[in-house]
Amino acid sequence: MIENENEAVEWIHSLTKAGKRAKHDTQERLLNLLEKIGHPEKKLPAIIHVTGTNGKGSVSRFSQAILTASGYRTGLFVSPFIIKFNERIEIDGKYISDDDLLKYTRIVFENYTDQTEFEVITAIAILYFSESHLDALVVEVGIGGLWDSTNVLDATVAVITSVGLDHMDILGDTLAKIAFQKVGIVKPSTKALVYGRIPNEAKDVIEARAKELKIPYGQIDSKLPLSRGYYQRYNAALAWAAVKLYLHETAKADHFLKIIDSWPQDKLIKFLNYVSWPARMEKISKDPLIILDGAHNIQGIATLNDSLLKEYGDREQLIVFGHLKKKNISVASFSDLPLATVFPVNWQAYKETAESSSYKEWHWQLDDLLREIDPKKQMIVVTGSLYFVSQARAYLKAKLAKSN
What we know:
Blueprint: H1 5-13, H2 26-36, E1 47-51, H3 56-69, E2 74-77, E3 89-91, E4 94-95, H4 98-110, H5 117-130, E5 136-140, E6 157-160, H6 168-171, H7 175-182, E7 192-195, H8 200-213, E8 217-219, H9 232-250, H10 253-261, H11 265-272, E9 282-286, E10 289-293, H12 298-312, E11 316-322, E12 340-346, E13 360-361, H13 362-372, E14 378-384, H14 386-403
Parallel strand pairs: 1-5, 1-6, 2-5, 6-7, 7-8, 10-14, 11-12, 11-14, 12-13
Antiparallel strand pairs: 2-3, 3-4, 9-10
């Protein structure tokens, strides 16, 4: 028996099964588990389902925040976590409590057969949400869409934030193949599909699927002028569009109009500027200026570069970069930044490269930069794998706390 929340998390993490992630049988395994625990997925409210190569976490977070502020008791399921495991499952901005995490993990544990880690986490979230009297639910896809564990759920509004070359070993090696996987969250029961700025090759696949199912669709290429994170302006606009469509489909006409009228653009922008999301253009220090961003693939780094140029183009960016080797990104990925100096650090990429001697231990590198930085002219940017950025975030937060 699992005795406490730490043992619950340890058991969940022990379930990683190489070769079973995002394959066609993932939903069969998960549905078998959900059947054993009473089909909680049938007790959920209408869902905003969000996928995309980049931006899906931010769009999910913005959507949940707007719905909560509009008076809806709103669940949010996201991945991965940055600070604490519980943040993957939350209601109205509050993480699942340790007691509830233990309670629902025990139920899943008692009915477990052969599910993977992510399938188990998805089951725990579904069970928790099903008993929490929600008005709305926002769910972020893990990987892809079509065969993702979260696709046992039916989207009322489907959102595709972006399509880029990532997870190609699972989703396919072309934009068209990846787009096909992502548009898999759109089903005959879906009421609307919105998507962000995506390449034509992917757009054609997405629109063809929507037309086949006769699902209303549209591209959101506008932006809300937030004061932080240039690329978040597009994510915010996409979230606002998704929420409006969701309310239109689920609320009575008078209630829908009341909510929409209460969100003039200046109020919406002011509100979204205060929505926090760790490791997404997160400013953890002003003096010296330190930004954290989990740009872990080609598209993500390109977006980060664009934001740094637009917002901090007059500063020298000292970029601490730790990434997974399989992501096909490198120091050269930051070549668009004329004032950047990139410091690749020991995390995982160095393990399989002949250049390992050029990779410094990441905490030593951060220590050196903190000692030597000129706060008036330079800034520190920590980026790469979200797992690396989460470790660096905790380390920097502790050091900054001691120095204040």
